[in-house]
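#dry-run=false #mode=assembly
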Amino acid sequence: MSEPFKHLLKLSDLSGEQILSILNLADQLKYERAHGIDHPVLAGKTLGMIFQKSSTRTRVSFEVGMSQLGGSALFLSSRDLQIGRGEPIQDTARVLSRYLDGIMIRTFAQQEVEDLAKYGSIPIINGLTDYAHPCQVLADLMTIRERKGSFKGLTLCFVGDGNNMANSLIVGCIKVGMAVRIACPADYQPDPALMKWAAENGDFQCSPDIPAMAQNADVIYTDVWASMGQEGEAEKRKAAFTGYQVNDALMSVTNKGCMVLHCLPAHRGEEITNEVMEAHADEIFEEAENRLHAQKAVLVKVMKG
Ligand code: CP
Ligand code: NVA
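#status=ok
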């Protein structure tokens, strides 16, 4: 039995055992859903979903997940909330804690997510910040274990920008015992504190040398070159990330049976070719489906009480 936890703010707050316990429950919920078994364990509970950025997968999978668990979800666009007009997060947290049973928030600064947890009294789930995307990495780990059977001896190589996805993959993969390689330009490295932690606690390397990082990978992972909020830097980033593309040449240095994952949305022709994307569509869209199962597991863990 792993220790219970109240929030999912970032994966570094969780132990490897807690991450595995989420994945085990996610596998069980996926199996039960496929066999028509439902558990309305969150009946009468409401999840508020605050979005300061766009979303397809996160919004729909959380809303459907709450409904499948017998509860309901409330979509709260920051454009319509008083947050958008400057009401402080500490006041919003204290008010929403009196109506809701949990909050999922997608925003820019990680500090806002931490402050919601600090000032509110209900579970807070990070649905993506500039720093982290823990829900996505739980689904990624679920998909890797489903396809590979275990995490033992596996290497994941992330190719691209060292921001939210790379940060959370480093923590999640190291905590379950995988080796991690990050191929990124020198100016776009992941969080230095996380890289130091990874090097001290596991098998970790980061370098601009793409083939060296991708060599012997069992999972190749990529993400867009310009994330949400960085649209104004798109041209500069296109130049900086030229070559950081998942294509047939890169796949040729990986291990046999190497998986390709992408958090989506994908920009074909930039970080991934259409050919590689389509050749690995089964894995990539199963990964997207697994957002639903992994997040249902998180919702049960933090909101069931
Ligand atoms: N991967 C992901 O979080 O997708 P959305 O931005 O569509 O939610
Ligand atoms: N790095 C991307 C991930 C999208 C799921 C972004 O932040 O836009």
